[in-house]
Amino acid sequence: MEDGIARSFGTCMTMGTASTMASAVEALGLSLPGASSMPAADSGHARLASATGRRIVEMVWEDLKPRDVLTDDAFENAVTAAMALGGSTNAVIHLIAMAGRAGARLDLDRFDALSRRTPFLANIRPSGQYLMEDFYYAGGLPALMARIRDLLHTDALAVNGRTLAENIEGATASNETVIVPRERPLNDEGGLAVLRGNLAPDGAVIKHTAMDPRFLRHAGPAVVFRDYNDLERRVDDPALPATPDSVLVLQSAGPLGAPGMPEWGMLPIPRKLLQQGVRDMVRISDARMSGTAYGACVLHVAPESFVGGPLALVRDGDLVELDVPGRRLSLRVSEDELGRRRSAWKPRELPYPRGWVALYARHVRQADKGCDFDFLEGTAPVPEPEIH
User: Fold this and answer.
1) What global pTM score does this model have?
2) CATH of 193-344, one of 2.60.40.4070, 3.30.460.10, 3.50.30.80, 3.90.1150.10
3) Any idea which residues carry the catalytic annotation?
């Protein structure tokens, strides 16, 4: 199956992280129009490569720099496009980190506000039915952005020296089952939602367009795994106290806890429940998830459990409540009890006293801040080396 799953070289053929970020980069204005969704084997790639090389040289002569393009408006365009595409949850971390380095303003609350006003129009897996090839030949990103141009900052500059308005002028969708019209969106809101509550005071995200709608509002007892090794060891144990209504919780999977915040967030459904026909469950972690993944998976819980975030205090049987329309993620445990658990919680020492991972641990930011190094944020100039 793995040998036959992809019929050519290239990235995943769904709206995974690669396709989402390529689209976000195009919406930012950092790539040439139409570049983001082109299939890898399409002969247009050779022409695109030549045009890109020519344009880079022209930009040098024009003194047009990436920072001239990476404005607040450009990042809002990228987020809006990603929401209309039902894009990967990884876009949240990547775009916030990019904005941090460019000196632009972007945070979780802005993501959620833009998602709430943006219709979901791209019928692409895993949130829809079609593949990236279908999207490209239906008109690609320019056609989709033309349908939501009133939600975009169309005067934003792109690397080709033109505005977004000029770059999407005349773009139309040739297949309305792949890029659906505004009047019949796949969802009235964009593909991602930002959740807050006593379980995620600094935020968490969920791709609610790719989950079973019956879990949009759900409360169930927690089944807690201390780390990924614990998950692997016990998830298929017939004695695991899990039912279809349970909420699977994975701890120690965040930026520091794993370390590195791997894509563990699509927790496997216990085998005994799969055998009963269960295909989705609420799952919560401080990990990430592949853009090709799906299900009722709450991700990027911040602060992470490793640093003492509330996720570290969840115990088996605790009632966990998910309310996507209300943007809430709550642990139904009294404040007194949480206080006792917090007092008893003991931080684990990082097992890296020196080297790269020690540097990483001292300077990496939490998920809501983009997981970038704190010393790389901002726009302070780097001085040229002195020649003696």
Assistant:
1) 0.95
2) 3.50.30.80
3) 290
